[in-house]
Amino acid sequence: MTEVVEIMARGVWTRHCQDLGLPSRAANFPLVEGHAEYMANAKAALSALEVEGWRVVPAEPDDAMRLASKRYKRGAKIPTGPGFYAAMLASAPKHGGDND
Questions:
Q1: Residue 80 CB neighbour total at 10 angstroms
Q2: Three-state SS across 48-79?
Q3: Is 28 helix (H, G, I), strand (E, B) or coil?
Q4: Which stretch of DSSP H or E encloses residue 7?
Q5: Where are the domains of the chain?
Q6: Is the distance from CB of 72 to CB of 83 less than 8 angstroms?
Q7: What is the pLDDT at residue 26?
Q8: CA-CA distance, 68 to 74, in Å (whole number)?
Q9: Contacts of residue 82, Cβ cutoff 8 Å, sequence gap at least 6
Q10: Is residue 62 within 8 Å of residue 89, measured between CB atoms?
Q11: How far is 14 from 26, CA to CA, in rounded Å?
Q12: Cα(40)–Cα(46) distance, rounded to whole angstroms?
């Protein structure tokens, strides 16, 4: 399970609690009845985004993304913005699918 999936699931659960007028305590989320369903729904949402060509990536590049950028720069005759972007995006954390 990835951090992004849990953040999304926790957000949906919190909103659900607010809609019902119930208290929601973030620390209690892993103990919530239906926790697995919230997690599955969050994972499905991320997968649906990826099918449409969207990716959820960190606001700041992580170490793997920075390394991919450096490797691209070393290997490209004429480095371009889209080339850097593609290299970093390819190494960004994966969130959807069954491999998490």
A1: 10
A2: HHHHCCCCCCCCCCCHHHHHHHHHHHHHCCCC
A3: helix
A4: helix 3-20
A5: 1-56, 59-92
A6: yes
A7: 66
A8: 10
A9: none
A10: no
A11: 8
A12: 10
Phi, psi of 56 (to 5 degrees): -100, 120
Distance of CA 35 to the CA centre of its chain: 18
DSSP state of 35: H
Distance of CA 98 to the CA centre of its chain: 14
Question: d(Cα 80, Cα 56) in Å, to the nearest integer?
Answer: 22
Interatomic CA distance for residues 64 and 57, integer angstroms: 12
pTM of the model: 0.67
Per-residue pLDDT tens for 34-82? 888 888 999 999 889 989 988 888 889 999 999 999 999 999 989 899 9
Counting Cβ atoms within 10 Å, is residue 97 exposed (0-12), middle (13-18) or buried (19+)? exposed
Task: Extract the tokens encoding 66.
Answer: 């920075």
Residue 32: both structure tokens together: 């919530």
- % residues pLDDT > 90 (the chain): 25
